[in-house]
């Protein structure tokens, strides 16, 4: 079953954020756009390149009203230790959500059960708490923050303009399509 347009299931977790431990629940997501960015584990190889890429682009996400949550099955204590010991991870300003019970990873269907780790899953959640974008990558394939920004802009555009759709490779400011009988077979 697809998670698209489903509501985020209830959860409660602790995150490391700006030098503190904070509580995060599904209610924390309401009223703004959010990204849940699952990754396998702290202190690994591809993960810091992805999290660093998000950190480098974090201000662009904030300009769009988007909060990012980096999520792994590590504890919030491990997130703090990684943050304190890695130059790349130290630049992260978004919450690093801990999922040691594996509940959140199960809810988003990214848990690798036999390993206790999360797949590389990216989920864009709208202000009503509904999942609008799902992307799952194999563990050895890193993601791109700029492509994620493009997708979020498209999701925000169609949310604000429900009678339009964004074609392939759409960039902000480019033409969209208004689905109609006249377009059938003409694109």
Automatic annotation (TrEMBL):
Q: What is its EC number?
A: 1.11.1.26
Keyword Disulfide bond annotated:
yes
InterPro entries listed in its UniProt record: AhpC, AhpC/TSA, Peroxiredoxin, Peroxiredoxin_AhpC-typ, Peroxiredoxin_C, Thioredoxin-like_sf, Thioredoxin_domain
Q: Which Gene3D superfamilies does this chain map to?
A: Glutaredoxin (3.40.30.10)
Say where the protein is mainly found: cytoplasm
Which Gene Ontology molecular-function terms are recorded? NADH-dependent peroxiredoxin activity
Q: Does the keyword rRNA-binding apply?
A: no
Give compartment(s). Answer: Cytoplasm
| Reactions the enzyme catalyzes | a hydroperoxide + NADH + H(+) = an alcohol + NAD(+) + H2O
Quaternary context: Homodimer; disulfide-linked, upon oxidation. 5 homodimers assemble to form a ring-like decamer.
The UniProt entry, under PANTHER family, shows: ALKYL HYDROPEROXIDE REDUCTASE C, THIOREDOXIN PEROXIDASE
Q: What is known about what this protein does?
A: Thiol-specific peroxidase that catalyzes the reduction of hydrogen peroxide and organic hydroperoxides to water and alcohols, respectively. Plays a role in cell protection against oxidative stress by detoxifying peroxides.
Q: What is this protein called?
A: Alkyl hydroperoxide reductase C
From which source organism is this entry? Answer: Halomonas flagellata
Taxonomically, what lineage is the organism? Bacteria, Pseudomonadati, Pseudomonadota, Gammaproteobacteria, Oceanospirillales
């Amino acid at each position: 079953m697809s998670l698209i347009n489903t509501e985020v299931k209830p959860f409660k977790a602790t995150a490391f954020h700006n030098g503190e431990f904070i509580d995060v629940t599904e209610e924390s997501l309401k009223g703004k756009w959010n990204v849940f960015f699952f990754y396998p584990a702290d202190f690994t190889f591809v993960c810091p390149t992805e999290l660093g890429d998000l950190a480098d682009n974090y201000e662009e996400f904030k300009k769009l009203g988007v909060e990012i949550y980096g999520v792994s099955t590590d504890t919030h204590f491990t997130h703090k230790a990684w943050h304190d010991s890695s130059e790349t991870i130290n630049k992260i300003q978004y919450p690093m959500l801990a999922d040691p019970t594996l509940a959140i990873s199960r809810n988003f269907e990214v848990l690798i059960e036999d390993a206790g780790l999360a797949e590389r899953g990216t989920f864009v959640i709208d202000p009503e708490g509904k999942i609008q974008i799902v992307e799952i990558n194999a563990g050895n394939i890193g993601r791109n923050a700029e492509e994620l920004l493009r997708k979020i802009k498209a999701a925000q555009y169609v949310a604000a303009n429900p009678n339009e759709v964004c074609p392939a490779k759409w960039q902000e400011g480019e033409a969209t399509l208004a689905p109609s009988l006249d377009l059938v077979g003409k694109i």
